[in-house]
Amino acid sequence: MTQPVLVELWRGDIVESFHRGAYAVVDADGAVRRQGGDTARPVYARSAVKGLQALPLVASGAADRFGLSNEELALACASHGGQPEHVAAATAMLAKAGLDAGVLECGTHWPSNELAARAATSNPGTP
Please, which residues bridge with residue 18 across strands? Predict the structure, then answer.
């Protein structure tokens, strides 16, 4: 089944890009109220559920125990492109837990944010 187009990004009078997907809206009892596309297809949720993945950080008391700031909590709910303020927040979160970047399973890579990548190329060393 081809997933329906859910979002179109327009630039002037031209559709610059479109994005397909599936969605389901459920009520508090789990009954599906609306859906579109192939909602039974397995997917890697990744960024779509980062907010849900961050809930245990707050619900368990870990956010309070480590004294996470609003900026750090926001970062726990999101992806980032390597901007300096995001790297600083991630580094601070690790430090509060007594850890460093060496524990990150994804490792380091060049920033996906264009301005951050340009800045990184002008600085010697690794990202």
Answer: 8
- Given a contact cutoff of 8 angstroms between Cβ atoms, the answer to whether 7 and 19 are in contact is yes
Residue 118's H or E segment, with its range, is: helix 114-121
CB atoms within 10 A of CB 39: 13
* Torsion, Cα of 113, 106, 47, 98 (10° steps): -100
Q: Provide long-range contacts, Cβ within 8 A and 24+ apart, for 104-113.
A: 110/82, 111/81, 111/82, 111/83, 112/81, 112/82, 113/80, 113/81, 113/82, 113/83
For the chain, what percent of residues have pLDDT higher than 70? 96
Q: What is the pTM of this model?
A: 0.61
Residues 23-69: tens digit of each pLDDT: 999 999 999 999 999 999 888 777 778 888 899 999 999 999 999 99
